[in-house]
Amino acid sequence: MREFDPVGPGLERVGPAMHAGDVVAKMSEGGYAARRRDRSPAHRRRVTEAGRLFADALNGRIDPFLFRQAFQPTDQVYVNWLQENYPGVFGGPYRDKIGLRETMSYSDYSALTVDILDRVLYEYYTAAPITNMPLVKKATLRDFRLVARYAMDGATTPWSQVVPPPGGTQAFPTLPHGAGEPPTQRAMQQAAREVLGGTQRVTYQPQMYQGGMSVNWRALINDDLGIFRDMTNRLAIGGRRTIYQYITSLNVDVNGPNATLYNSTFANQVITANGASSNNPPFSFQGLLDAITVLENMLDADGQPIVFDGTIYLWYGPSLHTTVQSTLKAIQADISVGGGTTNAQGFPSQRLRVENWPVANIVPIQDKYMRLTATSASGNIKNTMWGLMYEPASQPRPAIELGFLTGYDTPQLFQKVPNTMRVGGGVDPMMGDFYTMDQEFKGVIVMGGTQIDGRSAVASTGAGA
Q1: Measured between alpha carbons, how far is residue 49 from residues 22, 63, 91 in Å?
Q2: Model confidence over 289-307: pLDDT tens digits?
């Protein structure tokens, strides 16, 4: 028989020895075999010896090559050595059979390999993008100081005809007003959004939002599935969701459409008083026409018409997704003529079939945080509310402004510098903090926002009342 070194040069690891070796060692003490009373003593002996063989390979007492030889020997010399040092592994009627594959049963095989063979860690859900970002006008902020926005109304009414007096050539009539005081019809005033607040101006201040995670060195060592490699990605997901939810709160409050943005001052609620055929219609083709009508009827503080530019965004919640998509993709639609007169079955006596032209300039935006924000909305408003908004980035007075500190408009991720160094060596990044042995990560966003002017947006609760 040829001789060989059972330890051999250059031992290699065959598994996560820190926990697997302990488990197998416990098995080899006899308790595991003693509990298998449905097996013969020789069978239990094979399981115990197999566990001892695996533990010795893990702990470096023998070359792991010999452990692999127990599965599929390549030479009889290795079989003889295993039979001599681990009696029972090839014992009994299987003495002349080569390989543990022939001597171990299904249940015994798990005792040898300690853990299951096929483990998969599923990834996290696909993070939804910030779909409602088009509903705000982004601004870049220099620092954390208070941001003020001013706007003035007035002095935009059509001019008056100047009729010179008989026999005279006066260019501008003398009007009854005091010295230095502008004519009444040309007076300017603060914008409607400003007079809603006590400060007589629109202000907001950027705030810092952050979230952190830490993982201990022990957990990193035991992580053979790569769980903690996904930490920074999860932090980034949380940061994007923070922006997503914040934008929703500027457009929707706990009771439905945000009362600061949608109110009687701006006359931008989809109700009959503002030109709609019904109050707060549910989303439908007719409801869409009513919302467009309210937008087209919009007047400024002087009672003059406003012309808006850019794309129209249709915002809605998840519950309306199928209805919105079906309506926007319809080729033709039926509408009642001027509301119509209903017959006994409730159908208007006059209907008009038209091409679906209203959707030509409309882009749908599903806001998944709406129903999570309108927590106090009565009835089913959190699921039925919807609205239209002209693209804020194209408006001189946007409906909503969102400001980010320079460089922090996306989640910025940071890691605490490790401060554990080997004696005579360099810093070991795996060890993390010297005292806690934790690696720490955090993400930072700096932002703030407010409503500016609601005349470029309209909203319906969808409640039909």
Answers
A1: 15, 16, 11
A2: 999 999 999 999 888 999 9
Inside any domain, residue 275: yes
The answer to whether residues 15 and 67 touch, using CB atoms and an 8 Å cutoff, is: no
End residue of a domain, out of 89, 113, 137: 113
141 belongs to a structural domain: no
Residues 66/68/73/78 CA torsion (nearest 10 deg): 0
Residue 151 lies in a domain: no
Cα 386 to Cα 39, 48, 85, 298, 331: the distances in Å are 69, 69, 78, 18, 22
Considering only CA atoms, which of 440, 435, 438 is closest in space to residue 212? Answer: 440
Question: Which pLDDT band holds residue 104 (cuts at 50, 70, 90)?
Answer: very low
- Cα Rg for the chain, rounded, in angstroms? 38
The position carrying tokens 């989303």 is 283
Tell me which residue range forms the domain holding 354: 262-386+455-460
Q: Quick check: pTM over 0.85?
A: no
Residue 58 belongs to a domain: yes
Helical (H) or strand (E) element with 405: strand 400-405
The CA–CA distances, whole Å, from 126 to 117, 129, 134, 245, 370 equal 28, 9, 21, 17, 19
Overall number of domains in the chain:
2
* Cβ count near 192 (within 10 Å): 18
Mention every residue, 6+ apart, whose C-beta is less than 8 A from residue 351.
Answer: 334, 335, 336, 337, 340
Distance CA 450, CA 399 (A): 9
